[in-house]
Specification:
Order of helices and strands: HEHHHHEEHHEHHEHHEHHEEEEEHH
CATH topology of the largest domain: Alkaline Phosphatase, subunit A
Number of strands: 11
CATH superfamily of the largest domain: Alkaline Phosphatase, subunit A
CATH architecture of the largest domain: 3-Layer(aba) Sandwich
Bound molecules: zinc ion
CATH class of the largest domain: Alpha Beta
Oligomer: single chain
Radius of gyration: 21 Å
Distance between the termini: 60 Å
Shape: globular
Largest sheet: 8 strands, mixed
Number of helices: 15
């Protein structure tokens, strides 16, 4: 009896291993499939911190406005560059750069440039998600965007209908994605769960009400993170977009310590999203991740600022990983623009935004394949 059941168990075990081997073997044979994407933006995070980690000159009470320099040095300052940037962005440097690509290192010929000339948020998000700059988009006012974003276009395609969700920390996002026209679900302010149905959702709403209200138009990122992570776990959209904002808010307040803290929490959240996705059958092995920012910031004492009068805010960065991404590491001699973000999102789910729209920038090159 024992021997027979053991034999059956061994047989089942071999069958499972065989199935697993078949499942994992196909991507290696060049049929890697990416039909889901997680899109994350970190508002106003400089390429300097992405590539260089914390800036020692700003861990000060003066230009940096850092409240507790000893604490901030202990958290984020390391003499060694590799250790320093990893202390700030452990998931980006430990996983994304290993498996995917990172663009934006101006010292290696791979600058990523904002082309809208305005270098602030609404024009930046418009350029990121539409794929081209637009002079008409020239304020952060809650004006419905005249342009169709790649997310609106994707949601109108049968494969993605009802499977696109957007979470942000700013009350202008419903206008940027023109929710009245697009019908896109955008949770950008207030409670993360407007109609809670579970205990987790009620608790997240309660926590949101207990958190401080610092800014008129932006909420803290924690409710945004809770809403997005729960959407991933429960509704499992094919395209999930998360637009985090605290980094920009703390920078404007000249609080370099809190800017770094927000950046570090953003990295931890992206890791949580990614690891949760990999634990779910709908996402495992077929999901890509793309990360960028809406604008850069000043390089010196004006690190707090961005806009038309701050040329350094033109420089940004972009990170991409997924089953179809074969270029890896910090890219050299691969310049790009903010406009290329939109077509790259589409490409990561097997769609062609550039062919669908006149004037849209091409996707970023993510593999060695020749077209
Ligand atoms: Zn700003």
């Amino acid at each position: 009896m024992i021997a027979k059941s053991q034999k059956r168990v061994v047989g089942a075990f071999i069958a499972v291993i065989g199935a697993l081997f078949t499942a994992t073997a196909s991507p290696a044979m060049g049929q890697s499939r990416s039909d889901r994407v997680i899109v994350v933006t970190l508002d106003g995070v400089r390429w300097r911190e992405i590539f260089g980690g914390a800036d020692r000159r700003l861990i000060t009470g003066g230009d940096g406005g850092t409240a507790d320099t000893a604490f901030t040095l202990a958290r984020f300052w390391r003499g060694d560059l590799a250790l320093r940037r990893r202390a700030l962005f452990p998931f980006l440097w430990g996983t994304v750069v290993e498996r995917g690509l990172l663009l934006g290192d101006s010292t290696r010929g791979s600058a990523v440039r904002v082309t809208n000339g305005m270098r602030f948020s609404y024009p930046g998000y418009n350029e990121l998600f539409v794929g081209a700059p637009d002079d008409r988009v020239d304020s952060n006012d809650q004006v419905p965007n005249p342009n169709v974003s790649v997310l609106e276009w994707l949601q109108r395609r049968p494969a993605f209908a009802g499977s696109v969700e957007i979470f942000g920390s700013w009350d202008v996002f419903p206008s940027i994605f023109n929710v009245d026209r697009s019908g896109l679900p955008v949770n950008g302010h207030g409670l993360p769960f407007p109609t809670p149905t579970t205990e987790r959702e009620r608790m997240a709403n309660q926590m949101t009400e207990w958190l401080p209200t610092h800014w008129r138009a932006a909420r803290l990122d924690a409710p945004t993170m809770a809403g997005a992570l729960e959407a991933l776990r429960v509704r499992r959209p094919r395209i999930l977009t998360v637009l985090l904002g605290e980094t920009d808010e703390w920078a404007h307040e000249r609080r370099y310590d809190l800017y770094l803290d927000a950046a570090r929490r953003s990295d931890a959240f992206i890791q949580a999203l990614w690891e949760t996705a990999q634990s779910l059958p709908e996402y495992r092995g077929r999901t890509s991740l793309i990360i960028a920012t809406d604008h850069g910031r000043g390089a010196g004492r004006d690190w707090t600022d961005h806009g038309r009068e701050v040329p350094a805010a033109e420089r940004i960065w972009m990170a991409i990983m997924g089953p179809a991404v074969t270029l890896t590491g910090v890219r050299a001699d691969q310049p790009a623009t903010q406009s290329q973000f939109a077509a790259t999102i589409a490409k990561l789910v097997g769609e062609d935004w550039q062919s669908a729209r006149v004037g849209v920038a091409p996707a970023v090159r993510i593999s060695d394949e020749r077209r």
